[in-house]
């Protein structure tokens, strides 16, 4: 049995066998879709802790640099001992 279909190509008649082949491809790729989608979701679960860890390191390094800058400024201020100003 064949049915008529409108298509952009030159073929006007689509056999049911050809439709079956398309579904076979869908079933073949369907078994790969779930693992790919899970891997895509797991990417975000691993990305968030990495970003938080990087933010903590950046904050820690900035705080440490600020501490040493304040220590340096205090030592320079005490070392100067006041001038003629």
Automatic annotation (TrEMBL):
The chain crosses the membrane at residues 58-78. It holds the Pfam family DUF1676. Keywords: Membrane, Transmembrane, Transmembrane helix. Residues 1-10 have a biased composition (Polar residues). Residues 1-24 are annotated as: Disordered. It comes from the Eukaryota. InterPro entries: DUF1676 (IPR012464). This is Uncharacterized protein LOC108559108. It comes from Nicrophorus vespilloides (Boreal carrion beetle).
